[in-house]
């Protein structure tokens, strides 16, 4: 059941990974922030889910403009993650202790 709830998040992660592999290299290093906006979006969705992660990514893209100072801007981390991130970047339920 939990894996089914993670399906929208993992689908969005797949789209973001495809974007980072195909489109992002065409632009080069143009982002004012570190990590880049696409990396920020990927990490935000991984950590916060599809809805909250997308809203964080949209807010980040809106802030990324020629008048922005830029700098280091990491997505907020969850205090107690209930998932693990696989080597390919997808999210899976965390193993429960004692189970």
TrEMBL record:
Q: Which domain of life is it from?
A: Bacteria
> Keyword annotations for this protein?
Cell membrane, Membrane
* Entries under SMART domains matching the protein: Haemolytic (SM01234)
Primary location class: membrane
Q: Does the keyword Isomerase apply?
A: no
Transmembrane feature ranges: none
Q: Where in the cell is it found?
A: Cell membrane
One GO cellular-component annotation of the UniProt record comes to:
plasma membrane
Q: Give the membrane topology.
A: Peripheral membrane protein
By sequence similarity, the record places it as follows: Belongs to the UPF0161 family.
Physiological role:
Could be involved in insertion of integral membrane proteins into the membrane.
**Protein name, per record:** Putative membrane protein insertion efficiency factor
Species assigned in the record: Amnibacterium setariae
What does the record give as the organism's lineage? Bacteria, Bacillati, Actinomycetota, Actinomycetes, Micrococcales
Q: Which gene name belongs to this protein?
A: yidD
